[in-house]
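Sat 14:20. Reprocessing the chain from the morning session after the first attempt stalled halfway. Input below, unchanged.
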Amino acid sequence: MADVTRRLFWRHLRGAPTSWVRHHVNGVVRHEGVGQSFWYRPLTAVLSEVPVDDRELPLLFHARTSDFADVTVQATVTYRISGPATAAERLDFSVDPKGGQWRAQPLDQVATLLAELAQQPALDLLARLPLTEALTAGIAPVREAVSAALGSDPRLTDTGVSVVSARVVAIRPEPDLERALQTPTREAVQQEADRATYARRARAVEQERAIAENELQNKIELARREQQLVEQHGANTQRQAELDAAAALVAAQAEAERSRVAAAAEAEADRLRTQARADGVRAVGLAEGEAEAARVAAYRDLPPAVLQALALRELAGQLPEIGQLTVTPDVVTGLLNRLGK
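Finished this time. Tokens:
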């Protein structure tokens, strides 16, 4: 809406760039056009304001198909007032000069006209189509019929209204009928889902069977390998025992050979020791004999007095320790007799 301000007995109107304004004074046009701004006296001014921007008109109406099924058509019509001067003359776009508001509802009249013009070709077309065809392929024909009807209607041209586009959003039956129509599709989808479920279960069972077979094969293979392991372990134990026995035999033979060699060496050593002792004894005997012979030979040439002195010295060395010595006449006499001899 236009912006109206008050200054004493005058009013100032400032229009919008998307609003067409006309100012009459005593039947004479003083201002006319888009984006107007002027002063006026409210007692003598007659104002009209027509929007020239594009506007959306949503439509929702009921129709009946050839098989007597009720459907709901949802559409949208985009229009604009291309002839604001004509529209201002045909419809009441007058504005209160004191406040700037519309005195009537001209856009509601335009919406009613467009709704009636759009419904008629859609109703005629849907009345010739069965329900299934109307639901599956009826949107495009209905849109074309509505666009053609709105584009060629003379009442819109005479009113200064131009239709930019017409769109049919949806054609839907009643909720119960829609659910009934959706039932085969739902059943088909459910059947497909059931088949997929059954196939998935079958694949799962097949996979479980394959897994069980693999587990069984693994157990068999493990048992076979365990048997091979036991057999190999027995063979290894037997081989180890044979090697231990062979090693013990070799060790025993080596010990016996070592004992034999040691015994032979010990016997040879004993023989050598015995022979050495015998040789030593014989050598000592020979040495003693020779020494004795030498001593006898040495004593043989000595005078008797020397021999007696040597005998006394030898005897003195063999006598025990004498603490006290008692010399009696008998002893002296006997000794002297011996010395005399």
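Residues 175-300 form the longest helix (126 residues).
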